[in-house]
Predict the structure.
Amino acid sequence: MFDTLIPPEPDKILRLMAMYAADTRPDKVDLGVGVYRTPDGRTPVMAAVKQAEGRILADQATKSYTGLAGDPAFHSAMRNLILGETVDVGRIAAVATPGGTGAVRQVLELTKRLTPDATIWISTPTWPNHPSIISYLGLNHREYRYYDTATGGLDRSGMLADLEQAKPGDLILLHGCCHNPTGVDLQEGDWVEIAALCQRTGAIPFVDLAYLGFANSLEDDAAGTRLMAAAVPEMLIAASCSKNFGLYRERVGVVLAVTSGGTAQAAAQGMLAYLNRQNYAFPPDHGARVVQTILNDHTLRDMWRDELRGMRDGMNAMRTRFAAALREHAGSDRFGFIAGHRGMFSLIGATPEQVATLRDKHGIYLVGDGRMNIAGLTPDKVDYVARAVAQVLA
Ligand code: LMR
């Protein structure tokens, strides 16, 4: 029977990972998949993670199951990290999930049970797995304008005009910070506008927070999500610890559902636990335990914050440096927007053909839409990549 299967094409990020792995050129440059790299090209285990793992190894007395929703200590650590004191604890339902993708999936599973006819509004462009999972679950989506290719910034009026069409119960999918793939983040005033729009239309904000701490600071990067949570009666959050804790392969994520409290909170908690049970029973524990160990210990938390700050500062410095190198090679400020973007990614405005030329001729791997992982650039490659980009996109 299996020979009748037609495997779907892997998405463009996964396709690129496979192409990069198969390329035998020694000088190839991986600016594709969203993985952080040190200046010498490594993706190390963070020191705070190592220490937490040491403690867990020494102290853990059982590997028996945790609860279906995961460990409540993990929920509260993540709730505090993301929402601080913004929302009364009694209003929040939480479950641990396998990674941020697992969290996105469980939010959409919840939507399928709750409001199957809702439209999920996604930005143009967005992370390719968003529309893919939405369609896979048989849900509907529509796009809202987001990226302004002319300025490399936000198409604010286009975004607000499109979102104004949202109906009660629709989900508006927002990137909490470090928008993937554009690098263009919502500013405080945008969050205020969208919060007011949600209240006016009855749409539910759904924040995907995969890069908390990668833009400006932990507090600043959570500010939009908090502002929203303080303003609206109900909201959904899917967060990942892949990047900010470097726990990619451990698959650590969380869903936070902000409800009106009481029976609504209990219903959401029960349904999220049920959905975990149906999909994988108990969520993975090791990475989540590492995260709660770090966040609940002053020394480890400070150590982690410092390491995270170092990664963030490195990425932002690399943005400035790359933009300067591009200015030099292009002889103009046309790529200046890269310095002001945040997170790992920027859309550099390359056509699919130009992306193919960068790859085939120069061994530089970008996602087909022209998304570049700035965190994949190492100091020894900045000039090489800037020269090639300036030449190919001339
Ligand atoms: C990315 O966007 O490159 C990462 O989030 C990895 C992935 O799963 O796509």
